[in-house]
Amino acid sequence: MADLAAIFKAYDVRGRVPDELDAATMRQIGAAFAGLLDRRGGGGPQARSPVVVGHDMRASSPALATALADGVRDAGRDVTFIGLVATDELYFASGSLDAPAAMVTASHNPAADNGLKLCLAGAVALSAGTGLDEIRDIVAAGQAGVLLDGPPRGSLRVADVLASYVSHLHSLAPVRGRRLKVVVDAANAMAGLTAPAVFASLDAELVPLYFELDGSFPHHDANPLEPANLRDLSTAVGAVRADLGLAFDGDADRCFAVDETGRPVAPSTLTALIAVRELARRPGAHVIHNAVTSRTVAETIRDHGGIAVRTPVGHSLIKATMAEVGAVFGGEHSGHYYFQDFWYADSGMLAALHLMATLAAGDRPMSEVAADFERYTASGEINATVSDSSAALDRVESAFAGQPGVSLDRLDGLSVIAEDWWLNVRPSNTEPLLRLNVEAVDDATMADVRDSALALLRAEVPDEGAAAMRSEQ
User: Fold this and answer.
1) How many helices (H) and strands (E) in the chain?
2) Which of the residues 49, 107, 127, 347 is marked catalytic?
3) Residue 310 CA neighbour count, 13 Å, CB half
């Protein structure tokens, strides 16, 4: 059996194929998912919604998606198979059909990996604390095998939701005004399928970059959070004199942008910009931002009459918080954007349409629009490998605690907040790393705080001292 503890993460399932994740394991996960749905939903087969199943363009995805669907069906539940889709397209299907759903994808991970994202009806994401651990435990206990041999096999229906997905996006963020030229880097991933469909009815010129679906990612990784993966986009924008460049990750649920000069636009800038648009539609509404978005985001929300709500990083928590407070919108530093009218789910393509709508409605270039929301200087996310995360966080906390005008909180890792700067250090959910973010009023202050924090994180601590600090917690 696969090492379930290794492949079940905080928000999804991911592993190397076939060493860590194979078709047999995926079939059992499908059965366990069906079993979880039965436990929660109750009622007989007639009262149960079919499970929507989709997959990305990785070479292993069709076989894994088929195995997952087989597991669901063998456990007695019907399947609506929507095939090759972006993750936000799957969320659309889950929301519009009011059905649970499963997406086979490893997002921005390397080509040899694959994985699975699961949600309940209405695109309600499953995480470790809301059902993913339960599915893991069902498989680990061998109960999936019982489910596979149980009720009559469920049916299979094949459906195509791309046209209705596109229509829904256009209804939420219509793009009107001046004609734009937009370069889109799909990284040979799912935006290569969805972007042409979305742009087909827009008064915009689409300049495609790496639209051929190829899960080996021959040009660059499908992870626009890494600056190196935006270089080709920046070059292309300058070469064709485009108004805007857009980049999407492997499953196209995240969106990044570069302006007309090829300079990257921070996701916090997009979060603030979209927040203004959504607050114009819903004055006084709540808007969610995570603990490492720019201070500009909360300021912009308040400046436009909204209520800013700060949360830890993580899509399932943000979605749950949005639903709890009725937030109109939420954004993360990682390029995830969540919309109330998209079932609180994230959509990179919808975020892109909001950005294009803002540009098309005026005559200013992207660089000037972005400058409205760029009040501070940021370090970007810096990864630090440490042997003892808890001890490293304690070193940072001890160094800054008690300083005049400085406050600390543990909402997500450790945040240290001063008038002219802030820093956040938090453990990775998927790797043995601490992630550092620093923002300040100017470059010099940011660099000073960044370097001080990194020195503390990387400081050597005797084993006895580290053990003592742990014993005091």
Assistant:
1) 17, 23
2) 107
3) 15
The neighbour count for residue 472, using CB atoms within 10 Å, is 7
Q: Which of 316, 333, 362 is nearest to 117 (CA)?
A: 316
What are the tens digits of pLDDT across the range 17-73?
Answer: 999 999 999 999 999 999 999 988 754 444 578 999 999 999 999 999 999 999 999
Report residue 225 as tokens. 């959070």
Q: How far is CA 360 from the centre of its chain?
A: 26
| Phi-psi group of 43: left, alpha or beta (phi > 0 → left; psi -120 to 50 → alpha; rest → beta) | left
pLDDT tens-digit profile of 329-348? 999 999 999 999 999 999 99
Structure token digits, residue 472: 């005091």
CA-based nearest residue to 247, from 225, 278, 216: 225
For residue 107, CA distances in Å to 61, 68, 102, 216, 332 come to: 12, 18, 14, 13, 16
Secondary structure letter of residue 224 according to DSSP:
T
Question: What distance in Å separates the CA atoms of residue 197 and residue 376, rounded to the nearest whole number?
Answer: 37
Sequence-separated contacts (24+) of 40-44 with Cβ below 8 Å:
40/120, 40/131
What is the phi/psi pair of residue 275, to 5°?
A: -60, -40
Alpha-carbon gap, residue 252 to 87, rounded angstroms: 7
Distance, CA of 183 to CA of 186 (rounded, Å): 10
The torsion angles phi and psi of 208, rounded to 5 degrees, stand at -80, 140
Two structure tokens written together for 21: 């994740």
pTM over 0.85: yes
Residues sharing a CB contact under 8 Å with residue 443, sequence separation 6 or more, in sequence order: 377
The residue written with tokens 């490998």 in the block is 385
The span from the CA of 331 to the CA of 405, in Å, is: 28
- Which tokens in the block code for residue 180? 């734009």
What DSSP character marks residue 266? P
Distance CA 174, CA 61 (A): 33
Measured in degrees and rounded to the nearest 5, phi and psi for residue 118 equal: -120, 145
Strands 180-185, 204-209: parallel, antiparallel or unpaired by DSSP?
Answer: parallel
Q: Is 127 a catalytic residue?
A: no
> Do residues 36 and 161 make contact, with C-beta atoms less than 8 angstroms apart?
no
- What's at 403, amino acid-wise? Q
> Which residues on adjacent β-strands are paired with residue 331?
289, 337
